[in-house]
Amino acid sequence: MKPIDIQTNGNELYLDCNATTPVLPQIAKAVSHTMETVFGNPSSSHITGLKARYILDTTRQLARKIVGLERGRLIFTSGATEGIQTAVVSAISHAMKTRPSSKYLLYGATEHKAVPQALEHWNELLGLHAELKAIPVDREGRLDLDFIERHVSDAAMICTMAVNNETGVKQDIKALEEAIRANNASIPWMVDCVQALGKLPLTLDETTIDYAPFSGHKLYGPKGIGFMAVREQAPFTPLLIGGGQESGQRSGTENLPGIAALNALFELLITENEVLQSDKRLREYRRQLAESLQMAFPTLVFNHNFELSVPTTLNFSVRGVASRDIMDVFDACGIRVSGGSACSSKVVGSFVLRAMGLDDWQSQAAIRMSFGPATTQQDIDEACYRIRQAGDALKHSCLLIADTNNDNDAALDGVVQLKYDAHCCYLIIDKAAKELVVIDPHPALSARIENIVTCRDYKVKAVLSTGSDTDITEAAELLRGILLRESSNHDAIGWPQSNNRSCDAVPADSEVDVEGCVAIGERRLFRVNSEHPVFALSEPAGLKSQVKTDVVFPGDAPLHNYEKAVSGDALVCPKDDPEHRIVYSLCETFGQCDPSEDVNIPIGETDEFWYRDDLVVIDVRERQEHVVSDIPCTADVINVPVTEVIQFIHDHQTLKERDIICVCRSGNRSAVVANVLQRHGFKRTRHLMGGLALLSSPAAKAV
């Protein structure tokens, strides 16, 4: 597998263009030239100001041509959010004067959050107090026209979008216009056109769209510049007053360098050039990416209809694989994409896909890959190659199942912690014996557990639950039916009845009775207490009749139920871990441990330790990230994913006196692991703030 040099910024493949785009060289040049030589205030009457005014006026003329607006207002703004606010303030102010009893403010259920939040804010502030009502969409993401027809006559404003930012789905503007105007000829109508610029032909004068906001940074311009088109008959209230710029429609000195950037962009859009690709070429790019994704991820599904979407957006989910895992391995391969929702497991998934009625797993696992009209065939070829890399890495790590999975050094062994939100699930694995026990599986982790078992052909000895949580109990019962090879009698928590009160070894340090054990290779998992089940894991038993138990899974049981069942240096594995502590010591459960020290290493202090061969560098990224990108240091690197930290602490007590540096992509996971190691006696552990992402950036190198 070809490694990616994460230190070379030129290796980045940016496929998150719906979020923002890089600034094209010719556009950056226009910005620089304006800042250096045409720096005048467009409102000044001297020659320097007149030169600035020329850029302002010519850009406005080009903008009108691009969006098909000969009449009406065309105002430069700071971006789409300001345009949305202006439209909402204008429409609600108008309603307060003409229709203060309006019942509704309508918006598409898949709109960018800036729209409903602006409606809610100004609705309350201006005192209209209308009901915000989301217009439903079908499974294709198209707005419900019947719903619009039933409600638009009682509405003060309706907000839709031309192209969805998550899925690329295009709305049928003509059909929308017919449904709206047949039932309310004068209602203010805003269409978010941010994702349409440069991707769809626009002729606003041929429509009755009242407000159309745009943003420069979505199409190779800088951030902080945008514009909005306002129909001639549309009600208009300035959002910013005080200075009279933009003919009194938007006060504040104009962002002339940003406007010059739009000028350069518009020239590209209206002239033949080799920079921006045709729609036909962009569709071919999408086809190539889609085929590579399907080959790399066999369980992949696309979450939108390509025929109803712009060609530059692919939204997909991979069954059984979390979006975070895919994003991380893409990042390690130098591909930048985004999740279909916020990057946090606490977010239940993409609200856009939920509104479309797609399955929960699709919403929760969604990935958005988006490119722009300036993407080249070379970019696509490299992206397809790296997508295959990412798929191979996930297969090696058992997150994907393939016809053949290589049994390599990434095979799991010992205690593995899987998390969903704050909930912890544990796999106890004996690699040599190919045996496994599951404790407290969460439904969202079930597919991943199945993949691991299938990939390594493990024999599952038991699927246990420690509490009364309905979701966990049901997930455990379901997994028992899928994973247990032999019919087995077990009690309510999954404890095999054949193991009840019988075992070939006993805990050496236990002062309480145990209720049998489950053999996992050479290890024994003891059950302590029947009312609140606690499980204690031993070291390899061999031929010994007494074994040390030094890992405990207490579930919801109180401390006194297990403190006398394990050794004093036992690792306590929590059922819930909202503060990302991962694992506790017994002294922490009693509140008697010494506080940890600061573990942060600022990015500017890295030169010294990268060249020290006496360090232990721990890469806490997942296996699939580690295998596709190197870490630039002299010292040996140990890959210890967060999922395997508990077993690392157990097995590497000899490293407590060594200098340890933890690293990951962003510095978040490495901070968690460094703090865990500090708490468990690895006192000379620190981590790299900002992670490898900042280490490879020009800004970091300048520190």
UniProtKB/TrEMBL annotation:
Domain Rhodanese: residue ranges: 611-703
Chain segments annotated as transmembrane: none
Signal sequence coordinates: none
GO MF annotation terms: cysteine desulfurase activity; iron-sulfur cluster binding; metal ion binding; transaminase activity
InterPro entries: Aminotrans_V_dom, Aminotrans_V_PyrdxlP_BS, PyrdxlP-dep_Trfase, PyrdxlP-dep_Trfase_major, PyrdxlP-dep_Trfase_small, Rhodanese-like_dom, Rhodanese-like_dom_sf, RibonucZ/Hydroxyglut_hydro
Family matches, as Gene3D superfamilies: 1.10.260.50, Aspartate Aminotransferase, domain 1 (3.90.1150.10), Rhodanese-like domain (3.40.250.10), Ribonuclease Z/Hydroxyacylglutathione hydrolase-like (3.60.15.10), Type I PLP-dependent aspartate aminotransferase-like (Major domain) (3.40.640.10)
Lineage top rank: taxon: Bacteria
Record keyword Iron-sulfur present: yes
Matching PANTHER family: CYSTEINE DESULFURASE, CYSTEINE DESULFURYLASE FAMILY MEMBER
Name of the protein: cysteine desulfurase
Source organism (scientific name): Idiomarina zobellii
